[in-house]
Specification:
The chain has 716 residues and is α+β, with helices and mostly antiparallel strands. It is built from 15 helices and 38 strands. Strand 8 and strand 9 form a beta hairpin. The chain is globular, with a radius of gyration of 31 Å.
Amino acid sequence: MIRKIFNIKHLFIYIGLFCSFYTFSQKSDVDKLMAHGKYFEALPIITEKFNQKSSDELLLKMAICMFQTNKLDEAQRNLQYLVDNNYSNPDVNLYLGKIAHQKLKFDEAIQYYKKYLRQNPNGKDKRSIVLDVKRCYQGTILSKKEKLCIIDNLGEHINTVYDEISPIPSPLNEDRIYFSSNREDTEGGLRDENGLRDDLYGNYCMDMYAGSVADGEWKETKAIGNLLNTARYDILKDISANGKVIYYFKGFTTSKGEIYVDTFKVNADERPIETPKFISPMIASEGDVYFHLFTDTFLIFASQRLGGFGGYDLYVSEFHNNGWTAPKNLGPQINSAYDETSPFLSIDGRTLYFSNNGEKSVGGFDVFKTKFNRNIMDWEKAENVGFPINSAGDDLCFKLTKDGYKAYLCSNRKDGIGGFDVYNILYNSLQEEQSERSKPIVFSEVQPLDSINKSNQIDINNTVQTTKFYEFSPFYYDNEDNVLSQNTIRQLNKLVKLSQENPKVTFDFTCNSDETGPSGIDLYFCIKRVEKIQEYLLKQGVSINKIQINSCGSNYPIAENYSNGKPNISGQKMNRRIDMIIRNLDENEVRVVIEEPQVNEVMASKDNELYKKKTSGLVYRIQIASIKQMYKGNIINNKDTYIDKNMDSGQYRYMIGLFSTFTEAQKELKTIKEDGIQDAIIVPYINGNRLSSTLANDSKKIYPDLQKYLLYTKPK
């Protein structure tokens, strides 16, 4: 590479000429290269074009590439030249703000960001820039705190112009680390976002590497054998406590794949015929990411599964009785509406580090720290660990070494060599959380999941329960109405066993939807969906008398289906579910927990809470029809419309209204009959359970208003 600096009207412009890129430039498009994140490749091409014919547009693109390739000073000079020459593109102020932000000049960054927002008030990135402004204010606060460590880039023998991520210190050798990288010598070559070969705009796949200290410096870097690294993305996740087993991700893309368990053995004769999968509650093929194994028995991972607080949340599971327990959300002191990733639990079992990209971070992802408080038996509020560990970039995969004086992380801060680099953190005192070893009492409340063994297959029809404890979550379905998902079947199998052990137990299922169709159709489709649950249980031998199915369609969403007139995808996912109530359970013999979805306050719908209040205790509904097909009358557009199924006749009973007194219901009934629905009747419910005449009579002492209903229904 030849570098040349020259002056045009006091402008210093970085010029790099890569001869090998001349031919490449003839068949590639600069904008496409930049769109695919290939800034190193785009920069010499833009420079060449600028030398042939200068323009403000090319100079801006050159500055952007310089910023992305960590040449902040050169980028800043070019952008300032554009400002001085009254070039009006708002991106100039945007990138001047980003440069100041990266240099931790927060007040200066705020001013540039605000200029950009004034120039571009309706830009698609408005929300992210406003967030960056908040992060700069946070940076001014954190910059005043004492710095208790220093941080060093591990240097060019470990780091490259590409990405080095997921550093893990060797449990056996303090002078060795393991990491993953997408450098040029990886097995997979250049591939697009779908995992297909793309030698023009593709990026290199990840392979796993080991780095070692030699002569007091990080020098030796070697790939972890071609039997482990393949043509796919191979990304290291964790290493066992004894240092002999690795856990890694393998997939054609970074988001679709599996977690595997393997050893460091490279001799083919010493290896299994097929690398075993890591069978656990973490499902990488469905988007679960970063995980950490504490003492090989506690699994902490990040997931976007339904029921969280927003984005990625952290969950924990324990390996217990030869199986993993049900994953437990670590709660609101840790999880937020933003993303929580890359967890690390220290030796004391009570100090948790993780990365978050919310308003309390300085850049993108910052490292946060929290402790489990024994007095309140909960996590303390997580705090940003500050500078120099965190930066204006993304800081991830923080891990302390065993001695408590060092740590590693990966970061794409702009003073590095390439994209993500590996950094070494040196503390001026012992981090006490690494000096005390104990059982992580924080996880003592985690409850058993169906036994998940270490085989490569999970038999969903043969679940094993080791205790008389049952934990359930709502049954979610997707846009294709795939009600009987693998997770749902696993839970239904537990219901079958619960039914066998408890003869009197009954199950009440209610289907909700996401408001994507007309209310009447939504309502009917929901009852048809929940019928699939009913049919499955009947085939497994559960008596029809134990099953009640209902539908409320999109009337009572737990989360908002729309935001600012546009579909709220996360909210709609949460509303596509079937809720369950278990009745007549002998709590002395068995314990059941049904997990309720946790909805962020911003997304939460008031309709569901209002529905819970309305249906608590005694309420009355009006049955307008009992038929075996969809009711087509306009009256079902009423918000409080409901269907339950008569299990004896197979007919759908259409109900409207929620009335707290019989008098209110009777008044509405009169209006309905005047509109021509002569068969309409009043039906009482207690806590959502439809009452027969016998049950109504038995409950009149507790609910005196039932006397009016009983008098009304008394044969004349």
